[in-house]
Each structure stands twice: as C-alpha cells, then as structure tokens.
Amino acid sequence: MRHTFYFLLTAVNQAVKPQDSMSKFVLIDHSLESLGGHNFEYAVHMLRAAEQVGYDVVLATNRNFRCGDRLPAHWSCYPLFQYNTYSRLSLYMGGQLWNPKVGFILPDQVRPVSRRPWWSRWWQMRIRKKGQQITDSFDQACHRLFQEQPLEAGDRVFVPTLSEFDLLGLSQYLRTDANSSVAHWFLQFHFDILAGREPDFEQQATRIDHLRRHFQDALSDLPDHRFSFYNTTERISQQYNRLRLAKFRELSYPVNQGFRPASDAACDEPPLKVALAGHFRREKGRQWLFKVVDQLWDDTLKVGRARLLIQGNPAKVRRLLPKRTRPARNGKPHTGGSPPPVSLVPHPLSTEKYLKFVREANIGLFLYDSDCYHSRCSGILVEMLSAGVPVIVPAGSWLAEQISESVSEYQHQLNDQLPLVASEKLTATQGQVTCCGFRQPFKVELAVPDRAKDLLISFAWHSPQTAGNYLRMVALQFDKSGSLLQTDSSIVGQRPENGRVPALVRLVQHTSVLQLNWSNAYHDSPIRIVDVDASFLGREEGQLVDPPISSVGLVFADPCQVPSLLREMVRHYSHYRKTAREFSDSWREIHSPQNVLMRMLEEADLLEKGPRNFSEVHHATAQLSQQKAVTVGPGCGDVA
User: Which among 117, 147, 438, 626 has most CB atoms closer than 10 A?
Assistant: First the structure.
C-alpha cells in the first residue's frame, strides 16, 4: 500500500499536548471564501483536531468569507486576505511562474526587456505593479492578523494552500515581524512546479535553477524561523525536493471521519447512483461527459440499472448533456415516480448534504485528465474511498495509484483461482521485451485456446526504475476470418518492491487470435520488461458468470472505456462494494485529521529539539548575485 514511509500515529488521547494550554494553532487559508467546499472542510477538520489536543484555534480567511453559524462561536475568525491563490496573477502569468520584482522566473523563455515593443514593456510594468500589490496585501493581512493574535512560543501556524507566488507575500511579512519567529510554520504547496511527468523533468534544469533562486530569495534570510514544508502528494514532494533547498514531505489529505460506509442496505438497490462529485471543471473531464452519457443511455441509464448524479453549476452542466438525456428543469420525478436517470446537484453543498451525497453514492466516477492529475491529489477521491465507494479512475494518474495495489493483488488471485487452459513464456532479445513509443510498439500474436475466457499477462519491470514511466498494452481480438472483434487498452506502471505487474484481458466470444501491442504510454524512451508470462484462464465446470476483473475500483486507459467499465461495475456491484468497504478501514485511518495533525506536531517537536545550522544557506545567499544558477545546501532556517 502507498505511504510506505508513513508511520501510523496513535489516537488523539496519546498525542503530544501543547506545552502551554493557551498555545494557538493558526490556520491561514486566503483561498477560503465561502462556507462549504473542500477548503472549508479542510480548515474545519484540522482546527477541530487541534482543539481536541488542547490548542486555541484561529482561522484566517479571504475577505469574502462569512463565518455564519457553521463555525463554533468560540473560534476566532479573521476574514482578512484580499486575493486567493487561484487567480491568474496570484499563481501564473501566461502559464509561466513569475516574481513581480524580477519578472518571469524563466527569463530565458521571453525576449529581453530592451527588445520588447513599448506596449509589451508597459504591460509588464503594469503587471509587476499589480503583482507587488498582491504581495503587499498578503503581508499586510498577516500583520493585521498577528496584531490581533500575537504569536507566542509554542504556537503553530499552518498555511495549507500556498503557491510559489504566495510565498513572496508570506516571507515579506516574516522579515518585518520579528515576533513571527517564535512560532513553528507549516507551509503546504499544492501545485506542480515542473511540467509533464518525471521523465520530462531532466530537460527542465533551467526551470529548476530559477525556481531554486526564487525559493532562496524568499526564505534564505529568515535564520530564526522554523519551517516544515509539505505537499499534498509524494509525487509533488519529489518535484520540490529537486530544488535541494529543504526537505518537502507528503502530508495525507485529512478527511471528515463522517465519510464511512453507509449502513443502509437499501442504498445499494438499483438504480445505482453514479456520482461525479465536486466542481465540474475542464480538467475533470467535461469534454467527455456527452459521449459517456450518450453511450450509457439506452442500456444502463434509461432502463434503471444506474443513474448519474453530476455536481456543478446545473445550468452549465445541463448544456454538456445530450438533449435526450437532459433532466427536466423543474426537477419533477421521472415517469412512474422513479428518480430521473440524470440529476444535477448544485456545488457547493453544505457539510451535511455533501456528506450524505458521497456516502449514499454507489459508484464514484472520475473522468479526470490523467496529465493534469498525474501528481495532483483529489480530495474527492479520498472521501469516496473513505466512505467505501468503489471508483472508476484514469490510468497514469495519482488517483489510479491509490488503488493499483488492490487491483494487482486481485488479478494475481484470479490467476491462482481460475483453471489454467494454456500458458506461454514471451521472450525477445536477451530475454527482455523492449517497448518504445507508440510509433514503434513491440508486437506479438497469440493463438487463443478454445476454452480460454481471460488472458493474464504478468511480467517483471526491468527499467527504467524512475517514477513516471508507464507501459501501454493494446489487445486486438480477431476471429478466424481476421475480422476485428474488440480492442482493449490498459496502462500499468511499476509496482513497489519490483512486484510482478499484471494486465488482464477479458476475451470476447469467437476470439481466435490475439495481437498485443506494447509501447511506452507517454514517452518515446524504451521501457524494458522481463520474465513475461501469458496465461490463458478458463472457468470452473458449471461456472456460468464471469468473475469481476478488478477490486475496489476500475482503471481506464482511455475515456472511451468508461461506459463498458461502468457496466462491469454495475454487473458485479456487490463485489466492488465489498472490497471497497474493506479497503476503507485502513484508508480512513491514514487520512483522519487527528493522525495528520499528530504527524505534523511530532515532526515539529523533533525539529525544535535539534540543532540550528544556517552557514550553508547564508553562503549560498551571498552567491546569488554573482551567478545564474546556485546549488544550495540543505536548509532554509530550520526545516522539518
């Protein structure tokens, strides 16, 4: 299971208590603008966990936030921040990271100032002025906050939604308020800083150098401050650790412990509720919704086997649907009093309504863009898995990685449980199979035995050993006349501890020949696999129903596979629900706010007992003005 470097923490009553009962836990989320939604839920549950271990809690938010009656009356709440982290200026400028004082962080990608037309120079000057205004605004909001709530020894400050740009405003405040050094600062960065997947990172040395300079400028002259740096996933932490400035660690996404399997068996009766939860943005697969709904309409949705519940702006989502599938605007029940096959759910919902929405879902459908979510965390997936809801997710993404071990283990179990009809060892040059880009796939043809129902490919991953490499296997099924019957695709990656990687192909009737095309899923560089076994599996005598092909969830290599995978999950729903519920127990423990907080506090306590070491940081800072690329030693202030 993932998080192998994580240690499971003890329960709250065994936690490290703050030394002073009046110590504060301050959470700053300048992107928290409204009640409801993931920013709100994140803040509330982390603050409740902090309060349970004895801290006084303080919440600082965007100016647009209105506390209302959904926060405890005794909590201190300060809506102070003018800008959030998601605006165009607050995060990126033209898709490039930038700094208002020095311009683009990647100056080699734009023309020198002297060679730009006057209107471009005027526009850049205006943008820099606006950028400095945003930085100053963050600084001023922090000053106002800590004038109202002065920091004391033992206080903890957590900023869970920080970007590289936001860091400039925070560091400007830290430099000008000497008292800020008495607290421990937890800084969490959500976004990728490098483009593409890990094999693409080696070509981005210039970007890394400029980002290193950016972070060094922000943090190097804060020798008395103590920091812990976090990211929402291990993959993003690996990107930040390429800067060689400080140790960035993954911090599990804390989830409301109310997300647990529903006990009402009636919830599992058809039509099964297929939920597309959260704000339905472009990277969450809006462009695929029309085709998926259209293909599912006649045999799944219209006949009452399943129904879709799509969260988002109802008016906008409605336009994405085929006309014949659009729900009535007045929300009237479907014919016969049954619920409509497609329902539109507003976003955001209140905490109670959203909790009910997720817990009562039967299937979680994620049409997400694999490239966008290669490294990014999905809070909705964390909630679905905590609630024991089986999911359908894109291959090659962080989402698929969370269930990949369960899928692999189940498919290996099928190999042991089903009768073996025939097997074959696939070999190539020196016993290796080399798979390059899709233009040069490795091809092999296999004759399909009469009684075969499945083909299980199993192999050992040889190279490369770096993360971010994935193998695509396309299986073409032909009948005796050479007619193509079906095409299946799967994308798999390396398993922990070099475990054998399985890929299962469900054979259709009359398949006589199977052609397998293997290639690197996302790059042209070679992937080498060894010890490749092809096992044709049959059925026990009298076994009329095919077994499920996966466990906990299903993974699609292409969005076109979603309709068939959804039918598979509906057909074997009791199996997927059972395995997802079993998975949820350990998953929920890892993501409990109490355990997430305890990990942060224990790491902070360990750091504060350790020595201070600033010499390498200060030496590197002195060189910043003399060289373009700086290799910085370990440390920015004290870091955990």
Answer: 438
Strand, coil or helix: 159: strand
Strands 184-189 and 226-231: parallel
For each successive 10 residues of the chain (640 residues), what is the average pLDDT?
Answer: 38 44 91 91 97 97 88 94 74 45 47 60 70 89 98 97 90 96 96 91 89 88 93 96 94 96 79 95 93 98 97 94 89 67 93 94 98 95 98 98 98 96 82 83 94 97 94 97 97 94 97 96 94 96 92 98 98 98 97 97 85 42 43 46
> Given the structure tokens 């993360």, which residue do they identify?
467
The single residue listed with the structure tokens 């074959």 is: 424
Whole-angstrom distance, CA of residue 571 vs CA of residue 575: 9
Q: Are 460 and 501 in contact (CB under 8 A)?
A: yes
456 forms bridges with which residues in the sheet? 504, 535
pLDDT of residue 37: 87
Question: Which tokens in the block code for residue 317?
Answer: 């989502």
Give the CA distances from residue 313 to residues 215, 258, 280, 317, in Å, rounded to whole numbers and listed in that order: 38, 25, 8, 6
Fold held by 24-250: Rossmann fold (3.40.50)
C-alpha 620: how far from chain center: 34
Distance, in Å, from the CA atom of 107 to the CA atom of 485, rounded to the nearest integer, reads 53
For 376, phi and psi rounded to 5 degrees? -75, 145
Closest CA relative to residue 37, chosen from 277, 273, 252: 277
Q: How far is CA 298 from CA 11, 292, 341, 540, 563, in A?
A: 50, 12, 11, 33, 11
Question: Which residues have a Cβ under 8 Å from the Cβ of 285 and sit 6 or more positions away?
Answer: 366, 367, 368, 369, 559
- In this structure, which amino acid lies at residue 227? F
Please state, in angstroms and rounded to a whole number, the distance separating the CA atoms of residues 592 and 602.
16
What span, in angstroms and rounded, lies between the C-alpha atoms of 488 and 472? Answer: 11
What are the tens digits of pLDDT across the range 592-638? 999 999 999 999 988 877 655 433 333 444 444 344 333 333 344 55
Q: How far is Cα 86 from Cα 71, in angstroms, rounded to an integer?
A: 24
Superfamily of the domain at 257-330+339-410+557-591: Glycogen Phosphorylase B; (3.40.50.2000)
Reading the block at residue 152, the tokens are: 């004391």
Q: Output the pTM of the full model.
A: 0.89
pLDDT digits (tens, 9 = 90+) for 394-436: 999 999 999 999 999 999 999 999 999 999 998 766 668 888 8
Q: Which residue in this structure is represented by tokens 């039967």?
A: 362
- Is 419-539 CATH 2.60.120.680? yes
List where CATH 3.40.50.2000 sits in the chain: 257-330+339-410+557-591
Asked if residue 328 lies in contact with residue 340, where contact means CB atoms within 8 angstroms, the answer is: yes
Beta-bridged to residue 58, according to DSSP, are: 26, 76
pLDDT tens digit string along 335-348? 556 889 999 999 98
**Spatial distance between the Cα atoms of 343 and 257, rounded to a whole number of angstroms:** 27
Tokens representing 67 are 């506390």
- Strand boundaries in 63-155, DSSP class E: 76-81, 98-99, 103-104
List pLDDT tens digits, range 173-189.
Answer: 999 999 999 999 999 99
